Amino acid sequence: MFNKIRKYLSTKVVGIAGCGGLGSNCAISLARVGIGKLIIADFDIVTEANLNRQYFFYDQIGEKKVYALYNNLLRVNPNVRVEPYDIKLDADNIIKIYSECDIIIEAFDLAEMKEMIIETVQNTFPSKPLISGIGIAGWGDNNSIRTFHYGNLYVCGDGFKEISDELPPLAPRVCIVANMQANQTLEILLADFK
Length: 194
What we know:
- The protein is α/β, with parallel strands linked by helices.
- The chain has helices spanning 2-9, 21-33, 65-76, 91-97, 111-124, 171-189, and strands at 13-17, 37-42, 81-86, 103-106, 130-133, 146-150, 153-157.
- The protein has a single domain, classed as Rossmann fold (3-Layer(aba) Sandwich).
- It contains 6 helices and 7 strands, in the order H-E-H-E-H-E-H-E-H-E-E-E-H.
- Helix 2 (21-33) runs parallel beside helix 3 and helix 2 packs across helix 6 (171-189).
């Protein structure tokens, strides 16, 4: 059955906006299950502080995240097609970069960027599913993490715990939410799988 699922998923295109904690971990999970094409975008570089939650390695410090993730994805699955964009996303280039995607995954750190992509996708591609991650800070409280569904918008996380000095983003919660985003992607893509 897995080979049939993998073959079906190989025809799908998923866009990921942001290559940090959510984006890098979500992308790796999708590559592992055989998504055909990933369109990834980020403008930042890998730092040592990122390594506590992002799918990068110590020897990648200083590299552009989008290219480091590109290389990591191909190490996990050399058959995945990856289209990397070293760019700061805005309302205009989101429309151009992610137009062919079956699903878009929001993986930004900043609330204003999350708001911008949600508004852009809902206004421009109202029927395209968008999966966001909100409320990933801190640790513990597993039962607070869930998926909220509003039309074609899916929000994974607890929905309220914002990142702060007291509640930093740490690998366990970040990776749980990133994998919830990947799992939600599969739920949507495989809804009509026979």
